[in-house]
């Protein structure tokens, strides 16, 4: 066990965990930030996607010891009022079915649009490829990314 | 926010007291006919007055409705209240929905499965809304001293046009609660629907997109422990010995408990117990047949020729028909087991106390879970509560309650509140699969290409009846024999979205395409011809609606420009399941030698569409699901062990692999007939038939990706 000082959603957090603990479980078990989801544990489904210094990462395989001073943003911290353009587009397009994968989808999309505010459909598809949606809501996920892109 | 815990139970009571001054309307979910609404006020509301559920209208105009059925993405928490709000003429922005806990006294059919929730509750919900509206009008008319017949309602107000009087429902709720409830109330003409049939956004969107913890895995109770369970890795084995010493000494581990064939590692945090579980040393021994996929292939071959099949339907005389046929066609189709793979792995919270049991989590079937828990722990059902969280997908997996029982049993042993968590590997290895099936179809044609004989034999592994003997084309063929054989295996199976039909429809629709081809007929005209035969000269009982099926066929042909397009190959499919009818046309283009699925048209007749947005989700999602699993779905076994255990080996469809989907609905005003599943079964057949048209290759097995046609695009 070791002490880690983490910068998450604009706040400092101090956790005492084993240094190989994936960020996902620090968020969920230690900090009660349960918006970030567990789906596969091997970075294949994307449900656990968060931002590390603005880049989308799979938190289920990212050990807490590697974070150091990097800034983490989770779905809870993406916007203060839940009104990030991607979140708004997700509601307007009415994307969620079961909803379980959507936080990860939103985080991947938000990172994409930060890096590339006007992606082509092919760029969207390639970036979103790492996020599974078992309900098959892909058409609307794509539509919502395009919609958010037009408002950024 | 869903009710999850005791805090929310207090919310339940608070809601009751808020509405004490308002209108609280109990209505029966049991039978639409026997509905006897009961009006209550705070003084006589005790929570147990023989009513079955309620909607309430607070003095602030807020309309609250309890939603009994588990929500797993079928959007029931939005479509149920839409129906109530429609008849009530409510202001949609003031409607609130609360997930109800299990209550078999108040609610009937509190489960999610069979695409049955809306068909079951349609009339009950309408009556509830209409009754409340009637009372609000009566209260307003009395206050204004006018004839109730002169009053109208709109968007949460009662209006009297002549005098210009207007009052909000909240202002009338208390008075309405003292009015006499009418025996029956008129329902709206569907021409006047303002909410039903429109696109309404999911009421839980905001919670979902801001990461609120609404799912079972998110549930937390102070003082609870976490557990992960090691189950036998191979079907047909049991525990021989357990050495838990190393695991027990690892940080954060509270205990290691062996019960039945389970070894549970109990601890404080998920990562700690995941690591400790890997340190378990467990030996297993044989406890039944150890089966591999290769064994199943042989089994299928021999059981297709079995003389012990169960006859499901027999019309006319197939032996004579086949003897006298001008042409016969015979094909076999096979699929693998597939896991459900809901994105939220299995989990459940259980707290077995001296005075009762508390269960919380994602389940499609809370009542069965409680009943089984009661039997397992020998605790009466009325001492067991079940709170239903939002489900991160179900697809049938959470109709089983094995994971609920494990949590309950473990809690009873360790005498602590515990949340049992499954990993993805646990889930994929956990033994609830769509059964592997093989079908043999045979057809006899006369010299004019008429279908005069039809045989279907299904062999299913742990699937009692792998056929749907009364579905089309039964009734359209004079000589018909449908039978089935079951193989009992230690590899456990369960209902998977559109059970049986999820594969049978593909096989049947592919076969009919092949028969049409052999008869030299257009696939659409061939099916219409069979329906005409069923209408004019039926063979045996007809248990589907010929007109509805014919309509979706014609509409799908029209919408897709069937037979008129150049440069694309089209495939047709139509299927009746869960009382609804869906026809699909798939379009394929060639990329060199590889067929590429570009677009799927769907025309669905599910009767009245409640939520246009939710309905489109169901159809588009079901098509992606049906296509994805036809294309990639495969779980194989070696010596009883699943060979694919996570998404790096088990392929699910991803965004760049989806075809365009164009979905249409038949607007016929028939009472709703279900939509969670019906759009899935036709998809595999439409795709396979389009691929046949494009390439001349008939795909006989799923997943398609394993066929030589696709060998250049094997990789993920």
Describe this structure in words.
Chain A has 2 domains: 2-77, Beta-grasp domain (Ubiquitin-like (UB roll), Roll), CATH 3.10.20.30; 85-151, Orthogonal Bundle (DNA polymerase, domain 1), CATH 1.10.150. Chain A contains 5 helices and 5 strands; from the N terminus they run ββαβββαααα. Chain A is of the alpha+beta class and 152 residues long. Chain A has helices at residues 23-30, 85-92, 102-115, 121-128, 138-151, and strands at 2-8, 11-17, 49-52, 55-58, 71-73. With 716 residues, chain B is α+β, with helices and mostly antiparallel strands. In chain B, strand 4, helix 2 and strand 5 (95-99) form a beta-alpha-beta unit. In chain B, helix 2 packs parallel to helix 3 (117-144) and helix 3 (117-144) packs across helix 4 (169-176). Chain B is globular. Chains A and B meet through helix 1, helix 2, helix 3, helix 4 and helix 5 of A and helix 5, helix 7 and helix 16 of B.
CATH fold naming of the largest domain in chain A: Ubiquitin-like (UB roll)
- CATH level 1 class label of the largest domain in chain A: Alpha Beta
Count of beta strands of chain A: 5
Order of helices and strands of chain A: EEHEEEHHHH
- The percent range for helix content of chain A is 25-40%
Largest sheet of chain B: 7 strands, mixed
Provide the structure class of chain B.
alpha+beta
| Number of separate structural domains of chain A | 2
Strand percent estimate of chain A: 15-25%
Output the CATH class name of the largest domain in chain B: Alpha Beta
From the N-terminal CA to the C-terminal CA of chain B, the straight-line distance is 38 Å
Q: CATH topology of the largest domain in chain B, anyone?
A: Aldehyde Oxidoreductase, domain 4
Span between termini of chain A: 43 Å
Question: What's the architecture of the largest domain in chain B, going by CATH?
Answer: 2-Layer Sandwich
Which spans of chain A of ≥5 residues are poorly predicted at pLDDT below 50?
none
The assigned CATH architecture of the largest domain in chain A is Roll
Relevant CATH superfamily of the largest domain in chain B: Aldehyde oxidase/xanthine dehydrogenase, molybdopterin binding domain
Radius of gyration of chain B: 28 Å
């Amino acid at each position: 066990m070791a002490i880690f000082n983490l910068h998450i959603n604009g706040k400092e957090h101090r956790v005492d965990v084993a240094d190989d603990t994936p960020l996902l479980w620090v968020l969920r078990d230690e900090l009660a930030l349960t918006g970030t989801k567990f789906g596969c544990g091997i970075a294949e489904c994307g449900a656990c996607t968060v931002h590390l210094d603005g880049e989308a990462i799979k938190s289920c395989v990212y050990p807490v010891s590697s974070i150091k001073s990097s800034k983490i943003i989770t779905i809870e911290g993406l916007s203060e009022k839940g009104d990030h353009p991607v979140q708004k587009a997700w509601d307007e397009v009415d994307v969620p079915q079961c909803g379980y994968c959507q936080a990860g989808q939103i985080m991947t999309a938000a990172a994409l649009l930060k890096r590339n505010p006007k992606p082509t459909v092919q760029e969207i598809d390639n970036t979103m490829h790492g996020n599974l949606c078992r309900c098959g809501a892909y058409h609307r996920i794509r539509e919502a990314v395009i919609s958010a892109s037009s408002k950024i | 926010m869903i009710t999850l815990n005791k805090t929310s139970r207090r919310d339940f009571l608070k809601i009751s007291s808020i509405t004490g001054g308002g209108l609280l309307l109990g209505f029966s979910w049991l039978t639409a006919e026997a509905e006897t609404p009961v009006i209550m006020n705070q003084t006589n509301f005790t929570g147990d007055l023989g009513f079955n559920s309620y909607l309430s209208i607070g003095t602030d105009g807020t309309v609250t409705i309890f939603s009994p059925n588990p929500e797993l993405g079928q959007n029931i928490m939005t479509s149920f209240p839409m129906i109530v709000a429609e008849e009530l003429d409510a202001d949609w922005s003031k409607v609130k929905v609360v997930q109800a806990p299990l209550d078999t006294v108040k609610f009937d059919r509190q489960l999610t499965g069979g695409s049955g929730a809306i068909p079951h509750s349609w009339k009950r919900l309408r009556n509830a809304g209409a009754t409340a509206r009637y009372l609000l009008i009566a209260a307003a008319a009395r206050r204004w001293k006018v004839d109730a017949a002169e009053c109208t309602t709109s968007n949460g107000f009662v209006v009297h046009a002549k005098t210009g009087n207007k009052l909000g429902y909240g202002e009338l709720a208390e008075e309405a609660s003292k009015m006499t409830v009418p025996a029956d109330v008129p329902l709206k003409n569907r021409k006047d629907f303002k909410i039903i049939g429109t696109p309404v956004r999911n009421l839980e969107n905001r919670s979902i997109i801001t990461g609120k913890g609404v799912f079972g895995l998110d549930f937390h109770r102070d003082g609870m422990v976490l557990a992960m369970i090691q189950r036998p890795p191979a079907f047909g084995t049991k525990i021989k010995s357990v050495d838990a010493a190393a695991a027990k000494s690892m940080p954060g581990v509270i205990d290691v408990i062996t019960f039945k064939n389970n070894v549970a590692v109990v601890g404080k945090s998920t990562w700690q117990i995941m690591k400790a579980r890997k340190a378990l040393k467990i030996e297993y021994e044989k406890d039944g047949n150890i089966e591999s996929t290769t064994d199943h292939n042989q089994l299928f071959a021999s059981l297709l020729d079995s003389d012990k099949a169960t006859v499901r339907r027999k019309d006319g005389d197939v032996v004579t028909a086949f003897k006298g046929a001008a042409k016969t066609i015979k094909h076999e189709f096979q699929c693998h087991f597939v896991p459900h793979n809901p994105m939220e792995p299995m989990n459940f919270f259980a707290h077995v106390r001296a005075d009762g049991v508390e269960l919380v989590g994602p389940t499609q079937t809370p009542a069965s879970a409680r009943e089984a828990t009661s039997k397992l722990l020998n605790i009466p059902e009325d001492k067991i509560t079940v709170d239903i969280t939002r489900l991160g997908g179900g697809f049938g997996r959470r109709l089983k309650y094995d994971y609920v029982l494990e949590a309950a049993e473990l809690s009873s042993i360790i005498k602590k509140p515990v949340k049992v968590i499954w990993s993805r590997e646990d889930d994929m290895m956990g033994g609830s699969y769509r059964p592997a099936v093989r079908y043999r179809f045979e057809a006899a044609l006369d010299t004019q290409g008429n279908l005069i004989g039809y045989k279907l034999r299904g062999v299913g592994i742990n699937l009692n009846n792998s056929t749907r003997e009364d579905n089309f084309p039964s009734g359209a063929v004079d000589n018909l024999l449908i039978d089935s054989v079951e193989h009992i295996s230690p590899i456990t199976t369960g209902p998977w979205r559109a059970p049986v039909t999820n594969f049978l429809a593909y096989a049947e629709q592919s076969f009919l395409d092949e028969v049409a081809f052999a008869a030299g007929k257009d696939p659409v005209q061939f099916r219409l011809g069979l329906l005409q035969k069923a209408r004019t000269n039926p063979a045996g009982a007809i248990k589907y609606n010929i007109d509805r099926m014919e309509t979706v066929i014609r509409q799908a042909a029209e919408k897709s420009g069937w037979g008129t397009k150049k440069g694309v190959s089209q495939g047709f499919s139509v299927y009746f399941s869960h009382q609804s009818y869906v026809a699909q046309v798939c379009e394929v283009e060639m990329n060199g030698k590889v067929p590429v699925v570009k677009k799927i048209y769907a025309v669905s007749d599910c009767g009245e569409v409640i939520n246009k947005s939710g309905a489109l989700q169901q159809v588009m999602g079901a098509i992606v699901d049906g296509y994805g699993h036809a294309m990639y779905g495969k779980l194989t076994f070696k010596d009883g062990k699943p060979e694919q255990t996570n998404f790096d080996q088990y392929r699910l469809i991803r965004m760049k692999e989806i075809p365009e989907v164009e979905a249409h609905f038949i607007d016929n005003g028939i009472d709703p007939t279900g939509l969670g599943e019906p759009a899935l079964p036709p998809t595999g057949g439409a795709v396979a038939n389009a691929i046949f048209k494009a390439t001349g290759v008939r795909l006989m097995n799923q997943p398609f990706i394993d066929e030589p046609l696709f060998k250049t695009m094997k990789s993920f």
